[in-house]
Design a protein that fits this description.
The chain is of the alpha+beta class and 496 residues long. It folds into 2 domains: 18-265 and 316-410, no CATH class; 268-312, no CATH class. The protein has helices at residues 24-52, 77-86, 103-109, 112-126, 240-264, 288-295, 319-336, 353-359, 361-390, 412-424, 434-438, 443-473, 476-490, and strands at residues 2-4, 10-12, 91-95, 128-134, 144-148, 153-158, 163-174, 180-188, 193-197, 206-211, 220-224, 268-271, 309-312, 401-404. It has a 5-stranded antiparallel sheet with strand order 6-7-8-9-10, covered by helices on one side. β7 (163-174) and β8 form a beta hairpin. α2 (77-86) crosses α4 and α5 runs antiparallel to α7 (319-336). It is flat and about 145 Å long.
Length: 496
């Protein structure tokens, strides 16, 4: 670019413009990630429908009359199978003995206690979820940690490095006609993050912005639910078995609704009634309900003076339907580790605390395994946050691990009794911070207790010194030594 600087002098200045067009390798990578994201959307939509209880009734065309096939039946079992696990996954922060590396501030500024629940919920529903770490803009936390849904993000995961190698996040743009277009996206790479755009759906991607972070790793980490050695894509808690039991329960409830209608209005019969009984004054057939309600109580005699015989068929029994639902609940409880009382099975006698813990033992173990799996992800989040904030990772970072609330049903009295016994036998020291962890105190409560312990220590030290000084003043031997020391000082050589 040139401009005139004085008479006859032309100065040429080179201006570095961003490379707007992407090379073939990047376009191929973006296309592969787009196809991967599109391939999972039908399954994701199906799981979301079951979680919301909006799945359609899969009628077998046997028990439900055609005029009632549009009836709806909702069962919330898939949501229960997910929620009972998510409700026990409570991330408290990162445990880093010796120093916190500023992670407490990162946790608080980004509301990780809330955001982590969103990530866990998506991972349990869809089988996977993502967490992205980036530099915060003005007015945002720095670093900024965001949870990304698998409906808008996908990634290539390396089982060898246990890290994401590339990730793509899309921003759907819904038009007024309801058609969804994808006109912007973000591509995450090990050394840079690219913001992409295109004018219309199907047009080539162009580069709009580039962030060269030079981290050497993708600032995105993936939560994988129920991974297997040969399948690291993750698997939902809403399994095919859970969906099958849910569909069967929906059909059972729908059939029970149909049977209930016949039970509430049992079929009756009339023998020997004249045809006029079913006709109105103009000779037209009466509606069934009008004949049933309006004339059944006043039947005239026939031509022979006989009263027509009226009878009623026995109503249907709804008990087998409820037993079927109970059986399906039992099967679901075995599949998803849900205690029976979570599904509404109550007894006249209250369940004891030991019985509750025993029934929840498998559920607690399942949650603890999720803590181990998801813990790897949250450790990587902490690592990325420090690298983005400080530019490097301290050597001592290896001690950092996520800290979880207990997955078991909290019983404060039992926890306190256990800790007291550990202190009494010498396993724990009453001043140890491990005591706070065992009692499930929050980070804010732990910090407050630290301050109070320091104040108490100083107060006790001052009090003990005052008591020691008072005791010394009342000791005759100490007073003699003090007097001898004073006399020795007075009889010593005078200073020159």
């Amino acid at each position: 670019m040139g401009y005139v600087a004085g008479e006859g002098i032309v100065v040429t200045v080179a201006i570095a413009l961003p490379e707007l067009w992407l090379d073939t390798d990047l376009l191929d990578l973006i296309t592969e990630l787009e196809n991967r994201l599109a391939a999972y959307q039908p399954a994701n939509a199906d799981k979301a429908t079951y979680y919301a209880g909006k799945q359609s009734l899969k009628d077998l065309n046997i028990a439900i009359p055609p005029m009632l096939r549009n009836m709806t039946a909702a069962i919330g079992w898939p949501a229960t199978a997910v929620d009972v696990v998510e409700e026990r996954l409570s991330l408290r922060g990162w445990n880093s003995p010796g120093t916190d590396f500023g992670l407490d501030a990162v946790f608080t500024d980004n509301d990780i206690d809330v955001q982590s629940g969103l990530a866990h919920l998506d991972a349990l529903i869809y089988g996977t979820a993502f967490v992205a770490v980036s530099s915060g803009l003005e007015g945002e936390p720095d670093p900024l940690i965001t949870v990304e849904s698998p409906t808008t993000m996908t990634a290539m995961y390396s089982p060898r490095t246990r890290r994401v190698e590339a990730a793509l996040s899309i921003v759907p743009d819904e038009s007024p006609t309801g058609v969804v277009h994808i006109t912007s996206a973000t591509l995450y790479l090990p050394d840079e993050t690219l913001v992409l755009g295109r004018s219309t759906e199907g047009s080539p991607w162009v580069l709009e912005d580039r962030d060269e972070h030079r981290l050497g790793r993708v600032p995105v980490t993936q939560l994988i639910n129920r991974p297997r050695a040969g399948d690291m894509n993750g698997h939902s808690e809403i399994t095919e078995t859970v969906k099958s039991y849910t569909d069967a329960a929906m059909r059972t409830i729908a059939a029970a609704e149909v049977a209930r209608e016949f039970h509430a209005s049992p079929q009756r019969y009339v023998l020997g009634a004249p045809e006029s009984f079913f006709m109105d004054e103009e000779g037209h057939p009466r509606p069934a309900w009008e004949s049933y309600l309006g004339r059944i109580m006043a039947i005239e005699r026939d031509e022979s003076g006989e009263i027509p015989e009226v009878g009623q068929f026995r109503g249907s029994n709804l008990g087998p339907y409820f037993e079927m639902i109970r059986t399906l609940c039992t099967l679901l409880a075995a599949e998803s580790s849900i205690p029976a009382h979570y599904l509404g099975f109550v007894t006249d006698n209250p369940t004891s605390a030991d019985a509750i813990r025993q029934s929840e033992a498998r559920l607690v173990k399942r949650v603890e395994k999720r803590q181990n799996t998801f813990g790897m992800t949250w450790t990587e989040v902490a690592r990325l946050a420090i690298m983005i904030r400080d530019g490097s990772l301290p050597e001592e970072f290896g001690v950092v691990r996520p800290e979880w609330l207990s997955a078991a049903t909290p019983t404060k009295a039992a926890d306190a009794d256990r800790v007291i016994k550990l202190i009494q036998v010498g396993v724990l020291d009453k001043a140890s911070e491990v005591v706070y962890e065992e009692l499930n105190f929050t980070p804010d409560q732990v910090r407050q207790l630290r301050v109070e312990n320091q104040q108490r220590t100083v107060t006790e030290l001052v009090t003990s010194l005052n008591e020691a000084a008072a005791a010394a003043r009342g000791n005759e031997r100490v007073n003699e030594i003090r007097q001898q020391s004073g006399q020795a000082t007075m009889s010593g050589p005078m200073p020159e």
